[in-house]
Amino acid sequence: METTIQAPVSFTEGALAELKRLMSEPGFDTENTLRVGVKGGGCSGMSYVLGFDKKTEKDNEYAFDGVPFVMEKAHEMYLFGMQIDWQGGLNSRGFTFKNPNASTTCGCGTSFAV
């Protein structure tokens, strides 16, 4: 029996559609996978990482609704339960993050403190 590990983050339908669109673009490097994580910096202390790169030995692998992604094991405690959305409007365009672990968030929504 195969064990399924629940993904620590979720994606809205809009985010999934945009990610699938990006991955189907001509020239997309299929050696890369989606990375979700954090890094130090930003006006609130930590910034979100969302991009494509190579898996490392520090990563756990997950999938959400058919979209595979990796996350460093050490980042999971900061991001567990977070929802990633895609805003396609004229005034706000891009990925947004709803993180229940954030004690404060900056005005632009790309950095947080725990």
Number of strands: 9
Overall geometric form: globular
Poorly predicted parts: none
Which structural category do the helix and sheet elements fall into? mainly beta
Overall average residue pLDDT: 84
**Can you list the strand order of the major beta sheet?**
4-5-2-3-9-8
Radius of gyration, in angstroms, nearest whole number: 14 Å
- Whole-number tally of structural domains: 1
**Beta content:** 35-45%
CATH homologous superfamily designation: HesB-like domain
Helices and strands, in N-to-C order? EHEEEEHEEEE
* Number of DSSP helical runs: 2
Overall CATH class:
Mainly Beta
GO molecular function: 2 iron, 2 sulfur cluster binding
InterPro entries: ATAP, ATAP_core_dom, FeS_cluster_insertion_CS, HesB-like_dom_sf, IscA_plant_cyanobact
Organism: Cnuella takakiae
GO biological process, one term: iron-sulfur cluster assembly
Protein model, in words:
- The protein is mainly β.
- The chain has a single domain, classed as HesB-like domain (Hypothetical Protein Aq_1857, Chain: A).
- It has 2 helices and 9 strands; from the N terminus they run E-H-E-E-E-E-H-E-E-E-E.
- It has helices spanning 13-23, 76-79, and strands at residues 10-11, 33-40, 46-53, 59-64, 67-72, 83-88, 93-98, 104-105, 111-113.
- Strand 2 and strand 3 form a beta hairpin.
- The longest helix has 11 residues, at 13-23.
